[in-house]
Amino acid sequence: MAWRMTTDGASKTMSETHRYDAALAADIEARWQDYWERHGTYETPNPTGDLADDSGRAARPKKFIMDMFPYPSGAGLHVGHPLGYIATDVYARFQRMSGHNVLHTLGFDAFGLPAEQYAVQTGTHPRVSTEANIRTYRTQLRRLGLGYDTRRSFATIDPDYYRWTQWIFLRVFNAWYDEEAGLARPIDELVELFASGERPTPDGRAWAELSPAERADVLSAHRLAYAADAPVNWCPGLGTVLANEEVTAEGRSERGNFPVFKARLRQWNMRITAYADRLIDDLDTVDWPEAIKIQQRNWIGRSHGARVDFPVADDASVTVFTTRQDTLFGATYLVLAPEHPLVEEVVPAAWPEGTPGEWTGGHATPAEAVAAYRKQAAAKSDVERQAEAKEKTGVFTGVHATNPVNGERIPVFIADYVLLGYGTGAIMAVPAHDSRDFAFARAFGLPMRCVVEPTDGRGTDPATWDGSFTSGEAHLINSSAPGVSLDGLGVAEAKERINAWLGERGAGEGTVTYRLRDWLFSRQRYWGEPFPIVYDEDGVAHALPDTMLPLELPEVDDYSPRTFDPEDADTQPETPLSRNHDWVHVELDLGDGPRKYRRETNTMPNWAGSCWYQLRYLDPFNDRALVDPEIERYWMGPREGMSTGGVDLYVGGAEHAVLHLLYARFWQKVLFDLGHVSSAEPYHKLFNQGMIQAYVYRDSRGFPVPAAEVEEVGDGWVHRGEPVRRELGKIGKSLKNVVSPDEVFASYGADTLRLYEMAMGPLDVSRPWETRAVVGQFRLLQRLWRNVLDETTGEVSVVDDAPDDATLRAMHKAIHGVAQDLEQLRFNTAIAKITELNNHVTKIDRVPRAAAETLVRLIAPLAPHIAEELWSRLGHEGSVVHTSFPVADPAYVTDETVTCVVQVKGKVRARLDVAPDISDTELEELALAAPGVVEALGGAAIRKVIVRAPKLVNVVPG
RNA sequence: GCCGGGUUGGUGGAACCGGUAUACACGGAGGUCUCAAACACCUCUGCCCGUGAGGGCAUGCGGGUUCGAAUCCCGCACCCGGCACCA
Asked: The complex's ipTM?
């Protein structure tokens, strides 16, 4: 080993040259990053306002290119984080060089739980730790050479920013959804409708007769942001409610692993359900991956069906929701959710005559049975419910209902396979044609009736079936009663017929139901946007006037919510802000003189800031409006013939497929309805980048060992002499496989890292990081460097000779292909084409200047630092960022001759060099004369010849 | 269970409309340069048979359509995401 160290020393002196090594890359990169900053290279003009300039660039076609902004964690970046940022940066640079005015910047999503938890543990104010994290991120992102308009960057925790988050909340609060017009309108217009009597109040009294509190209640039922009792995930151990995504499948908190209980609490909600149809329908206007659109559609869960009323007792009825109203004749019992409120009202004192024993659960009276079943259902965790999903449980209520279509008396059950929160919380059970009803009917010995004729030959007696018949591609049978018959109809026609019949009879109607619930919008946390809401002494909520914004977070001593015994479900949340008496209790003049108020002490969820940030990038310093309308229209205005425009390209992880993207679309639509923005959609084109994974090495006990210490031995891997096994996983501390960008900067530089991440594979698939493969992209840059200058003297070595024909063709083919690939975000193949051209140029002794300059400009979006350096050494003034991307000359994009493949029966038997414009007949002649073809045919007759000039001929012998 | 996406050399991947399968890169082998090594450069590198020319077989598996299939259709296996008693 000793000799190796001395030779290392020797190679040090050797490297005192102009070789492109890590040290030189670092020097070049630092110099150009400083240059860009000094010259505001990436600053983008607006057409008007304080960011307008006289560069003329605002007159060009525009591109707004955006990343999902990061939540800056204390750990800093690893090599997996910047994949999407590099991709948008490359794309933005390409668009800039292609003549666009490009808006590209990055802000920070900075409210949220990690900073607050850190504050609770250390006493550091979340603002202090968050801002330190943001500084670290900014330094690391700058080191990558990402070209942002830094003037437009902000964090969601800046009061100048969340002032407008609060402003939007107030617009939502002060709006209602006009179902007839199909859009949101200011709440004042609803008040006018009530006041004029054009719209009746719920109880029919005149608006003027209602007390202020009564009016507030009426309006609250219409506002798009409203406080209401709702079942939430209450976690006493953490002292806070949790979003669904913060609760594990085991029904415990993701952080701390405490039990989570369902509790009804008064919380703020947003009426996103009013937009369910538009959120589905407008997906047709955006350019998003189909998989994401499907996920959003499924989440919203629109299903078309019918409500049907089943009379019970004398004056009561159960309304069920069904999507198979065509099978109404097959309904043989009803099931209500255990918690259904109607149950108490109608349960009789005693079991009806002849009630089977298995229906009663062994209880003496229906009331007892219902109470016992409810208790048992409530105690079940979600996991138990899931595990038992196959075994249906339930109990008879002692009540019978009447099937409206045939007058049959059918029993009513409660069972936990029916959910209160969906539809009407009640179903009509058609065991012959629904798998769950089938299982339940089998368990309780309930009758089944086949009303849709099976198409699979199983016959029409459900007693002989293994499961229900659910196909909708079949015809109705056994479905006739006086006044209505569905027999012989297809399922679709039967649905229409029964809807009409129900409507005429007043027994129901066709209707639409959604899976989507309103959005729970409040959290018991410190580190979030305060609600700009105060309550008067009657508990009526009032909006603060815009002039009182921003309502800043108060300083507090204790950031943590009050926590409780984790198992004690009978506790109530106490928010951190509520302990701040002087902040909570205020005297304000809201227009009717100074009065005492109590502030709302919940804060907004951390989705709030990310719902609208694209708009603030446009006009970040505007203190009179969220965004200037002219500027907003310039960057995000609708596309031709559509009501939607939006960000031209939005890149981020697929984990936000539903929540963030749905919430942001919802806010955009409210702002659109109220006239604040011109596009009904925020993000026109969405692209999901894949994840960079890394190898995880586990020892014999299954624990991860530090990946950096593992050595490859033969076919296996070894850590400290012990064999370990290898798998792929996320990059992270817990898996001990973190690779920091700093390591790559130190060995190769930022341009190499950028190239490597873009070359690994298509942007939308996940791929494994392999440190040893990074060197390939480094070699590309070294060769490029040597093609332009002499690495011993540092002198530019290109010559002014015109490139030869082969080089010209290689150049223009590369230009053509690279431009196409970059436009389509196919960076890996773009790099392959640049590499091919570079390899071609490497073989030329005297490199023509035109070839070198083409290479430099082709690679400039991908490796901007070395491109700048070479561009300037080639004698150009100014930055390569604002030069134009090369344009391919069609005359050189095709080869002078192409290789034509001649197949016999689909197998290649000869290759011919032919002119690209050769005629079919000429080519066929040549092909049939080719020696390989003659031999393969062996004199056999020719049945057919397929000619696809100039690339292919296929000869089919007879 | 349902819905999406995937499976191509030792490895990451390419083949865009059904028309030369394996571009580009990593790794590997050999060579040139060097006292030597590193770097760099050059050649080879899907598998099998063959000294060779050449031939055969290969895109997860089994069928099909077609003059021709990695690509389209049917069935199956495995992997990765998402949803999950949604009536």
From this structure: 0.95
User: What is the C-alpha to C-alpha distance for residues A241 and A783, in angstroms, rounded to an integer?
Assistant: 58
Q: Show the DSSP H helices in A174-257 as ranges.
A: 187-195, 212-220
- Packing angle, helices A849-859 and A805-823, rounded to 10: 10
How far apart are the C-alpha atoms of A699 and A703, rounded to whole Å? 6
Nucleotide nearest to A392 (CA to C1'): B85
**Residue written as token pair 């990059």:** A731
Distance CA A788, CA A109 (A): 43
Per-residue burial over A339-350, b if 16 or more Cβ lie within 10 Å, else e, is: bbebbeebbeee
Q: How far apart are CA A403 and CA A396, in angstroms?
A: 17
Amino acid at A842: T
Q: What is the pLDDT of residues A688-706, one digit of tens each?
A: 999 898 888 888 888 888 8
DSSP codes, A250-296: TSBBTTTT-B-EEEEEEEEEE-GGGGHHHHHHGGGGSB--HHHHHHH
Alpha-carbon span A86 to A88, nearest angstrom: 6
User: How many Å does it take to go from CA A114 to C1' B37?
Assistant: 52
Tell me whether residue A539 is exposed, middle or buried, using C-beta atoms within 10 angstroms of its C-beta: 0 to 12, 13 to 18, 19 or more: exposed
Rounded CA separation A183/A172 (Å): 12
pLDDT reading at A2 higher than 70: no
The whole-number Å distance from A687's CA to B67's C1' is 40
Is cis: bond before A723, omega within 30 of 0?
A: no
**Both tokens of residue A873?**
């050494």
Nucleotide nearest to A835 (CA to C1'): B24
Interatomic CA distance for residues A938 and A933, integer angstroms:
8
DSSP A150: G
The residue to which tokens 């062994």 are assigned: A362
Tell me how far apart the 2 most distant CA atoms of chain A are, in Å: 107
**A573, A241 Cβ separation under 8 angstroms:** yes
Task: For CA atoms A68, A69, A74, A79, give the dihedral sign.
Answer: positive
Q: Is the dihedral of CA A355, A360, A362, A366 positive or negative?
A: negative
Angle at A642 between CA A641 and CA A647, to 5 degrees: 125
HSE, side-chain direction, 13 A CA sphere, residue A465? 25
Closest alpha carbon to C1' of B23, residue: A832
User: In the structure, how far is the CA atom of residue A760 from the C1' atom of nucleotide B30, in angstroms?
Assistant: 29
Question: Is residue A578's pLDDT more than 50?
Answer: yes
- For A297, the enclosing helix (H) or strand (E) is helix A290-300
Q: How far is CA A88 from CA A36, A83, A105, A742, A827, in A?
A: 18, 9, 10, 21, 11
Question: Nucleotides of chain B within 7 Å of a protein C-beta?
Answer: 3-5, 11-16, 19-21, 23-27, 36-38, 40-42, 55-56, 67-69, 80-87
The mean pLDDT of A592-606, rounded to a whole number, is 93
Question: What nucleotide is nearest A417 when CA is compared to C1'?
Answer: B85
- Residue type present at position A483: G
Q: Between A367 and A256, whose confidence is greater?
A: A367
Cα distances from A614 to residues A261, A627, A672, A716, in angstroms, run 36, 10, 14, 48
Q: Which nucleotide comes closest to A911 if you measure CA to C1'? A: B20
Condensed to tens digits (0 to 9), the pLDDT of residues A825-841 reads 999 999 999 999 999 99
The dihedrals phi and psi of A317, each to the nearest 5 degrees, come to: -145, 155
Whole-angstrom distance between the N-terminal and C-terminal Cα of chain A? 71
Q: Residue A484: phi, psi to the nearest 5?
A: -155, 140
Q: CA(A694)–C1'(B21) in Å?
A: 29
Kind plus residue range of the DSSP H or E element containing A727: strand A722-730
Collapsed DSSP state (helix, strand, coil) of residue A210: coil
Q: Three-class SS of residue A894? A: coil
- Structure confidence by residue, pLDDT tens digits, A725-782: 888 888 888 888 899 999 999 999 999 999 999 999 999 988 889 998 999 999 999 9
